Here is the input.
Amino acid sequence: MEIVVFGAGSLGSLVGGRLARDHEVTLVARAEHTEAIRDSGLHIEGELEATVFPAATTDGRGLAADLAIVTVKSGDTATAADALATGSFDVVLSLQNGMGNEAVLADVLEGSILAGTASYGAVRREPGTVECTGRGEIVLGAREGGSSVLAERVGRAFSVVGLETTVADDMPRRLWGKLAVNAGINPVTALADVENGAVLDPPANDTARAATRETARVARACGVHLPNRVALESMARVADDTAANASSMRQDVRTGRRTEIDAINGYVLDRASERGLEVPTNRTLATLVRTWERARGLR
Ligand code: PAF
Here is the structure.
């Protein structure tokens, strides 16, 4: 298969790097990362190891492939969609944090859009090198739910190269479940500058659990079956599995980048407002992170 990974940061490089063992992969990445990969290949360290030689470019316009995997930050999805629209792809898979990414891609692109979530831990160590800090799972499927032959095909390609992958027919519920995890872990670890495991214990656990519980309630109001217990257990499991990791939002704050708050707690807030629901913890967390971004001229 010909595969383009659009936005090959840490997770995109990890996934693209594994796929490059069996497929013709092109990574669309930042300049330094692209140059390092062209010079001496892509090195994957940690729990998954490989050195591979995918093509790499900074220019995502005019590309063509069987599959495009989008791994950009949610705030960059519209720009990615515009660039992808100048090329041609049979299938586009969003492997991003936050909600609403697939709808943004579907607005602009003609190929089939698949939804996905990834819980692999990945950190970029230096240009050309990423570390897999925790084996996780990729879940993908039709964005509206139901079975999909294309999702089965993409899922097989992922599994064959050793990426733990589940093809799911209930992606809306899976996406809300992931959102409930991110709504609890990401802003709390970013604002307190702590590792993911900190949300398992007092005093951070109350705030993280409240944000997760509120998210599950909004999911149910949107017609998605997500019991509080299931969302809370899932948040605790991910925090435990990734206890020593820095969440993506904490990494963004530490490196002075705009975060994905709008597509995580901001999304919960918007859906809650539409339904007349109060989500005070998500509101406070979103306000604090947005205040941090505003003070740094990031919004
Ligand atoms: O955004 C992240 O960092 C990850 O989605 C998660 C699951 C919170 C693990 O760090």
About this structure: Residues 97, 119, 181-182, 185-186, 196, 238, 242, 245, 247-248 surround pantoate (CB under 6 Å). The two ends are 39 Å apart (CA to CA).
